[in-house]
Write a structure and sequence with these properties.
The structure is a homodimer. Helix content of chain A is about 15%, strand content about 35%. The first copy, chain A, is of the alpha/beta class. The two termini of chain A are about 35 Å apart.
Chain lengths: ~475, ~475
């Protein structure tokens, strides 16, 4: 265990040096966050398919629990239940266009993680940074439980619990608990907790700030006290349901997986649940007593229970949907928390966009009309009216709009279009439109996959560390 | 699957070139022996401990089902349910004495398997060849089901089913079904089926030949007909009991494993079974309704059911013991088949040596007195008298002794001493004499082990092949 302790110290030191300009207590926040003695109880696994280029290299690292796919290099790092998803890595010879620049990849893109701690963290690699087209680098970075790193190369960052950094190159950045950042790039910034921020250069800038008072019941994160609150309790409660998936090598698929659909063997799928064609249920997704219509996807770490999704729904990484009926093409963003109850149902109309990190935690039934943009903290109809706008109306904003803690500047139409296009891309990429031959995506490409399980040294000074491994085609 | 088929053809070609001097139909014997489409259903696993130096390299190979421990390199080969046990590999700096020569290892010894097919085959590496002290090479070799390669570097060999080559460097050798070879080295020889041959230079030469007629009920192996007979039926019947071990990642150990004992998680241990201190139950051992006394070992692929072993018993690789009572320090050699029945019990007295590849298949109860050497095919007391001798009497042989199909030449005392010393070495190496601090062996060193599971490409032209993997400490 000695080497593992040294490694953790080293990772924390790196983050502290990068973030020295802020008076942020990294040591205090890290205290007790990573149970080192638990790391030997898990195993890591990497996927082998005939669709994804293969290269894995693991050096002086602990990979416990993590899932890896696509070309990936990990050095001097501790991973823990991450999903390192390299299924959108760019491939050699691929041509890319960034505004005035035409770029061609000389080599396959690779994820590289160095001197970093990623704790129960998703890493999805679809990056938009033209400066590093063949390297998706995460360096000197600490990610707290249930943070998401999505298309965001990071150098010297600290991500609070349940935060998301999305399509944003980060350098020396602190992202507070439950904050969502999508700003293209961000440097030398300390983002306060519960800040939702989507910015596209001078075109638009959407910001919403949770009241710290409302947030504290959902997520608490203070030095020496670890992560607390409803989100953490909820996530930790699912542990036992997942345990059996990790105990078994070959998971028998239920017979109900229709053609074009993919049910990951590390997903929980229980109760009277059903999936239609072209549905993707990703690893660590939790589906209970729910119906997922054609082309719906349930991404990593999402939770869907007692709900009906009509079809072409996106449930993004970490989103929770309970006792809800989602009409077609409803989008639910990252880490959104939608909780109806059996007698307090939530209905969301066709084509609604539930912004990332939205909390709909009902004390009265709510029926959201079609075509709405929804954000913030909603408990009932009044809250909803103060935290939503018809997409058509939002598109009419030309300059600025304020509603409570929401502040939008720029072109509303460009904002709605950007969101709509991205949702279409997500559906396409996940294989929602597969016709048996064309338009295949993750749902189809992930159907034939081998999982290779790797375990750490069980005893001695290297306990919890993994041997160095290099895997080539 | 295309690449896998090409690889098999290539391996067979290599063996054919090496063995071209013999009129032996390799193609015919190989027909249907390896079900290529089954290979994707299994996974390989390698062990990580803090006691065994680590290096694994797998290139252009299928490893399905195999178990690997210690430094090991596999290239252009197909393994299938092998136990590649590198736990007796010599380590860097170790000094060895071979008669007049003092040798020191410049590097850790490594197992290297090239252009070979090893089918359900144990490879144990304790080699005595002073010409290759840091390389245990198996090259251009085909091993049929349940053959044992034990301390025997091989180049261009074909091992029939249930054969054993033990402490013998082999070059261009065919070993017939159920033959046992321990001759130090052997080259350009076609050993007929059922030939038991133990030779130490000019000191002694023990040979026993089964009648082909007696053998055919136990083991049949003819071109185009695969492997048939009682041995094969018996081995294949156990498949389902083993299946559940491979389905589960973390096997809960029964609470009865006492200190100093080791029960491998890939062993079947069922019925009312019990083990005492310092017992070793190795991978793929099958224990049912049996009692194993202090310091007993049950090696790979052995089968012990409805039996009582008093203690310090060796049950070598592939040996079968059914409805038997073994008094202390009974040794049962490789692939021996001892079958009593509930009302036809077999008792074996203290210190008996049951020679490798002995068949005791009773039609009447048999009580073997202590201190006997036993060989050949035995069904009752008369057979026993014709296939055994008191060790004390055997030690008195000075020149030659013939009994039925057994022919011994040389020094009987040296033969008995060599056997006795080897049994002591086996008990020591397996940790039978561990006192809580000193004399630790495999039973103790194998207690803390991680198993890493690796799977092949699930689809496409590489189906059944594994990616190239290199693992370092």
């Amino acid at each position: 265990m000695k080497h593992l302790e040294q490694l953790l110290d080293r990772i924390i030191s790196h983050a502290k040096i990068n973030l020295r300009e802020f008076s942020f207590d990294i040591d205090g926040h890290m205290k007790g966050l990573l149970p080192l003695d638990q790391l030997t109880k898990f195993y890591a696994y990497y996927g082998i398919t005939s669709h994804h280029p293969i290269f894995f290299s693991f050096i002086n690292s602990s990979l416990s629990g993590s899932y890896l796919l696509g070309k990936c290099r990990v050095a001097n790092s501790i991973l823990y239940k991450c999903d390192i998803r390299g299924d959108e890595l760019k491939q050699k010879g691929e041509a890319l266009n960034f505004k005035d620049f035409d770029l061609v990849l000389d080599d396959d893109e690779m994820i590289s993680i160095r001197n970093s701690l990623l704790l129960k963290t998703l890493v999805h690699n679809f990056s938009h940074d033209p400066e590093k087209i063949d390297l998706f680098l995460i360096k000197n970075t600490i990610a707290c439980p249930y943070a998401n790193i999505h298309g965001s190369p990071l150098d010297g960052c600290f991500l609070g619990p349940f935060s998301t950094i999305d399509l944003t190159t980060g350098h020396d950045v602190i992202v507070g608990a439950f904050s969502y950042i999508q700003t293209g790039s961000l440097a030398h910034t300390n983002v306060e907790p519960g800040h939702i921020w989507i910015k596209n250069g001078g075109v638009f800038d959407f910001q919403y700030r949770y009241s710290q008072d409302a947030l504290k019941n959902y997520i608490g994160f203070a030095p020496g006290k670890g992560v607390a609150g409803r989100f953490m309790d909820f996530a930790e409660d699912l542990k036992t349901d997942f345990q059996r998936l990790y105990d078994v090598v070959h998971m028998e698929k239920p017979t109900i997986v229709p053609s074009g659909a993919s049910l990951n063997r590390y997903a929980v799928f229980q109760g009277e649940s059903h999936i239609e064609e072209n549905v993707l249920v990703a690893q660590r997704a939790f589906i209970e007593s729910s119906w997922l219509g054609k082309g719906a996807n349930a991404q990593e770490n999402c939770h869907i229970s007692h709900s009906h999704l009509d079809g072409y729904n996106v449930t993004a990484h970490g989103a929770t949907i309970i006792h809800a009926h989602l009409k077609p093409r409803v989008f639910v963003g990252f880490n959104s928390f939608l909780q109806g109850k059996e007698n307090v149902p939530l209905t969301i109309g066709e084509g609604c966009i539930i912004m990332p990190h939205t909390i709909i935690h009902l004390n009265a039934p709510l029926d959201i009309p079609p075509g709405c943009l929804v954000w913030g903290h909603i408990r009932n109809k009044t809250d909803f009216e103060n935290h939503s706008m018809a997409l058509d109306d939002f598109s009419k904003i030309k300059d600025e709009c304020k509603m409570g803690n929401m502040h939008f500047k720029g072109d509303g139409s460009a904002f709605v279009q950007a969101f709509t296009r991205r949702i279409e891309h997500i559906l396409e990429a996940n294989g929602a439109y597969f016709d048996g031959e064309r338009n295949s995506g993750h749902a189809q490409k992930g159907q034939n996959i081998s999982f290779n399980l790797i375990q750490p040294y069980p005893k001695g000074p290297r306990e919890g560390l993994y041997p160095s491994i290099e895997i080539n085609p």
